[in-house]
Amino acid sequence: MIHNLARDVRAFTSNVFLVTGETTALVDAGANFDVVERIRDHNDAVDRLYLTHTHPDHVENVAAIREAFDVETWGFDADSEYVDNAVADGDSVPLGDDDYNVLHTPGHKPDHVCLYAPATGVCFAGDLVFENGSFGRTDLEGGDRATLVESIRKLREAVGDDLSALHTGHGGSVVEDPLSDLEVAEHAAQMG
């Protein structure tokens, strides 16, 4: 089961996905709201916290989650204070009842990753792409449009024709024809 804990939050935050199952995990921590209370509304424990990247809106709640659940974090930048365990491109990590492939997808930020489960076609895309074919900003420190385009292509190749759900860092999840939104994002990013 996948719950977006930030779905109705009216503050500047990323989405925060709670994935329950054999390994109860969070994807991103969010910011500016009481995520611990929202986690406890669904579950008593969290086994892992994955960070798609370390922009403040995705990590400000990390300390509260660590304290409340005695949980470690996984992310790409081993030097970040928010990352306890480094993941690398091509690693496999457990979320819920599935194994997700780690895809290093820089362009929005150098430490950005997407998590993709080939068995179910579910992808956590962070701020790489969003619903309706939009894509992550590249005007922030470490952002690069050409690199972002390559990362979108990499994600498109990794999912093939099997993408069933695209859970993004902001806005709504795409569960109807997510491949189309991914392809529009790739084209739009190239044109910019």
TrEMBL record:
Residues annotated as domain Metallo-beta-lactamase: 13-167
Keywords carried by this UniProt record: Hydrolase, Metal-binding, Zinc
Cofactor dependency: Zn(2+)
Signal peptide segment: none
One Pfam family in the UniProt entry: Lactamase_B
InterPro entries: MBL_Glyoxalase_II, Metallo-B-lactamas, RibonucZ/Hydroxyglut_hydro
Gene Ontology MF annotations: hydrolase activity; metal ion binding
Coiled coil: none
Domain of life: Archaea
PANTHER family: HYDROXYACYLGLUTATHIONE HYDROLASE GLOC
Protein name: MBL fold metallo-hydrolase
Lineage: Archaea, Methanobacteriati, Methanobacteriota, Stenosarchaea group, Halobacteria
